[in-house]
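Narrative of activities, Objective 1.

The group set out to show that a structural description can be obtained from nothing but a protein's sequence at a throughput compatible with the screening campaign. Below is one input-output pair from the validation batch, recorded exactly as produced.
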Amino acid sequence: MSETQRGANMRQDMRNHEHFESFDPTGGRKWSIYCQRFVAHCATKNLTKDAEMKAEFIASCSDYMIEWTERQCWMKLANTSLTFADIKEAIENHGKPRWEIRAASKFHGRNQQRKESVHDFVSALRSLARECNFGAAHDRMLRDRIVLGIRCDRTRELLFNLPKDQCTVENVVTIAYNTERVKCQEWGGFGFASVCSFCWSVGTVFYDFIYFCIILIGWSIFILLVILFGIPYALLIELGILG
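Output recorded for this entry:
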């Protein structure tokens, strides 16, 4: 064997014994990018079998990464039933359940806002529901949230009394739309939400007016007391009548 060939073999052996850097789940790096680089690293070392890639991954992991990965996989990495594909899937799914819980929390806490139309309310719920991953329960969850979150008590009571075979998300949305349209007509086209907003504004102005009157009367009484009692008392002191 020539010196050149021997040197090439030694360099290849050194590369084969070099391990990839460990992934740090707290470092802000993306697992998807790290995984692509790790797979390419395994390809350069001719590690194509799942068991070989798993062994290389474990060898490259820090102590913290091994413990963290075992928590994601719910088993020891040394378990022969655990494949590298299983490890990849567990790490890729890390954080998804918590994100779905946060999305579901926003969804279940979403109510129709003041001045918000039924159309906008339903659109917002549909957008939130897509992030919750409800699966087969999507329509039922959306229907229930519309009924429970709608502002109009009369509409909600109407939806509560729907027959079971008619209580679909499509019927609920249609009834809510139609009820809102009827209210708009009853209020002369201004819209029920607009009328409520107007009444709220008038009430706020009236409250501010009463508050201003109370403050004005209070200051008037105070000034009157100063005039009646404060000035004579000051004059008596000035004249030396009171020491």
